[in-house]
């Protein structure tokens, strides 16, 4: 955890309010494999990371709550006794939306002050939104002793994203951020919301991310479009979700789908299989096998699900040329964000330099490398 960030948030709180706050850390997350499977009730393989949101929060006895977003240099006032959820800007929707969803659970709480800041790279697909939602729900639960379980908090965070931000996300981001375990990834079954932690021994390898520093405009509409195709196909097959489909099942409805849509649903079924195979590879310490699955995931995202972009593909192609990298793929919703690379520790410095130079020459702006470690989930900073 970044002690400078904790200090910055604490000092900002002290400057604006007289009380002593509770400090919450809520991490961002990566996903090793299993992309776009979460809203198909499938398997994903996320892990919380050592970059996240720090929130300072405390009750107040007044008639309004104040939320301060340090990184935006913005503040917002609202009254928990009379929540107005209309006309919320992006970050406000996460804070007020979470408060509204807690109230829907029949929990009552008073007004509070919250200051938050983060060090999750912007637009990198490491789920800063889930980290923020979790820090708010965890903080309110802690302050007002509401007795919510971690899993109930995850569902509240997800509902806030659905109902106030307008993104029909699966459960992975909030779950991984809340339940993360140091040095481990979680094989999460998105249907049962049961996760099995896998301690990861990367041996002489480590994880390296490259943020493309682009976000193409297609992302939200493309996400909703693909989700609709998946749901429509599951309905055709008479199943709850594509999680229950095999490739043979898909062949039965192939003539009812466009060629493109067939590839999309085929990708989901195959990616689900890859996520399960990845758990076996980890158990057996088969990093080469894991790397091949990671490359397979990108291939499917690029050519079948079609949510990649030139910048992501360029970075993955560079990785393929380097024998010190076992696997690389785009991570997250797509159309920008990050690639994740499983790379030999001794090769990190030289590959960073090479990739940034080649990328800048090709696209006219830099990509940003980040080394990440796997961390514990949302917690009170002691």
What does this 3D model show about the protein?
- 46% of the residues are buried.
- This protein has a 6-stranded mixed sheet, sandwiched between helices. Strands 10-11-9-12 form a 4-stranded antiparallel sheet.
- It contains 11 helices and 13 strands.
- Helix 2 packs across helix 4 (150-165), helix 3 (128-144) packs across helix 4 (150-165) and helix 6 (219-237) crosses helix 8 (259-283).
- By secondary structure, the protein is an alpha+beta fold.
Keywords:
single chain; alpha+beta; 13 strands; 11 helices; six-stranded mixed β-sheet; 2 domains; Ribosomal Protein S5, domain 2; four-stranded antiparallel β-sheet; Alpha-Beta Plaits
Q: In terms of structural class, how would the helical and strand content be classed?
A: alpha+beta
CATH class of the largest domain: Alpha Beta
In percent, how much strand structure appears in the residues? Answer: 15-25%
CATH architecture of the largest domain: 2-Layer Sandwich
List the secondary-structure elements in sequence, H or E.
HEEEEEHEHHHEEEHHHHHEEHEE
Tell me about the biggest sheet? 6 strands, mixed
The amount of helix comes to 40-55%
Number of domains as seen in the coordinates: 2
Task: List unreliable stretches of 5+ residues.
Answer: none
